[in-house]
Amino acid sequence: MDKRLINISILGLGFMFVFTSFLTVSNIEKTVLKSIEKDDPSFTGDGYTSLCIIYGVFALCNWLAPAIIGAIGSRKSIYLGSICYVLFLTPFLWPSNILLYTTSVLLGFGASIIWTGQGTYLTMNSDSSTISRNSGIFWAMSKISICIGNIFMILVLRDKTELNESTRKLVFTVLAVVCGFGTLILMVLRPSVDADGKKNEVSLQKPISVIPKQELRDSMRLLVTKDMLLLSTLFLYTGLHVSFYSGVYSSCIAFTKSIGTDTKQLLGYTGILVGVGEVTGGLLCSVLGKKSERSNSKFNGLSRSTVIIISFFFNIVAYGLIFVNLPNDSPFGDTYTKSIIKPNLHVAVFCGFLLGLGDSGFTTQIYNIIGVKYSNNSASATSLFMFMQIRSSQKLGFPGKTAEVDPHMLAWR
To answer: Which of 3, 108, 166, 304 reaches 20 to 30 Å from 134, CA-CA?
Structure first.
């Protein structure tokens, strides 16, 4: 097997285990912290405050991430970031307000360097003919985590009305082991190589003391270029899209009582279908990438635009179905009203698949663009992508009551 393909496979496998753990935690964090508060009134940690800290620090640290990548390299940045994900699990085993918010800060920092490092490592192990294949393989492998996490929680929480202490310890012990295993996999990442099999790791051209200032200046210059300003629209859209299907849509399902089933359990099945859509999209992009490599066609021009257009079509279809299927007041609280049609659970779950499929098309093509157009400055380009996506997601919100289950899945971006 191609050395670069092995590197990408190891990267995808490590991310799969790390984010199986994190996505499961973010999906139940609010509920878990409430159950801890019932057992220990002195504990007042809030899940939404924790998530706010995570994403706020994540957005700010994206400006520093390129400097860290330049100083210690993409591989060390990836597994240093993954360690932060392991540490984030400690407040759920040993509840503490200070520990919860401290690890939330650490996780925000870790998310910025693990994702910027991932984009850089993916680019360094790819070229214009393999970036589509590699990004598709990585995306499909890493997004299996969504399916695994939702299946795990459906099995563990079946017939349970609340999370008692013994259940919490079981769940988070398993998640800590899974996350730790993913971190060990990422620690054995091999140096990136070029098409000739030669190492092409980031090398320090300047003293470490001047790297942060230089990288920040490079990122600012890149941000104001014409191409990056045009791409910013795409980056912002993906942030809004992910925030919608991982936060708003899940809340709408939970609040729509007229679906006629256990809506909280339906969230798990919808999450699985989102994961199936993500994996399917990644595999399709990988297959198309392999075909383009064999045929030497202009896949990296026309096809990238075509994939984005098709993905946008999937999203529009999903938005339309959601509009006619769920009541207008479903984002704000429990409702028994009907929309244009009677709320249908099969349509709701199918829309989850379409949303995941569309998201995978957008994201894999963004990585393709970064890998081809910004191959010499991938760390700065990836950090700008992460920053804009996070910022746009923070702007999307809705007033009123919030769903008890809060499946925020943006940090795995």
So the answer is: 108
For residue 193, list its beta bridge partners.
Answer: 199
**pLDDT (tens digit, 9 = 90+) per residue, 212-265?**
666 677 777 888 788 888 888 888 888 888 778 776 777 777 777 777 656 556
CB atoms within 10 A of CB 376: 8
Question: Helices 97-124 and 3-39 meet at what angle, rounded to 10?
Answer: 170
Task: Please choose, from the candidates 88, 93, 147, the residue with its C-alpha nearest in 3D space to the C-alpha of residue 114.
Answer: 88
DSSP count for the chain of H helices, then E strands: 15, 0
Report the distance separating Cα 315 and Cα 209, nearest Å. Answer: 45
Strand partners of residue 335: 256
- pLDDT tens string 293-330: 444 444 444 467 888 888 899 999 999 999 998 888 77
**H runs (alpha helix) in 157-197:** 165-187
8 Å CB contact between 367 and 135: yes
56 CB neighbour count, 10 Å cutoff: 15
Residue 335's φ and ψ, nearest 5 degrees, are -145, 145
The amino acid present at 146, given as its one-letter code, is I
CB 390 within 8 A of CB 55: yes
Mind giving me the DSSP string for 21-47?
HHHHHHHHHHHHHHHHHHH-TT----H
Q: Which residues contact 27 (CB under 8 A, 6 or more apart)?
A: 149, 150, 153, 271, 405, 406, 407, 408, 409
User: Where would I find the H helices in 40-164?
Assistant: 47-61, 65-72, 74-87, 90-93, 97-124, 131-156
Report how far residue 19's alpha carbon sits from residue 356's, in angstroms, rounded to the nearest whole number. 16
Task: Evaluate the CA torsion angle 223, 226, 227, 230 in order and state its sign.
Answer: positive
Grouping H, G, I as helix, E, B as strand and the rest as coil, residue 256 is strand
Cβ(85)–Cβ(24) under 8 Å?
A: no
Backbone angles phi, psi at 135, to 5 degrees: -65, -35
Dihedrals φ, ψ of 256, to 5°? -85, 90
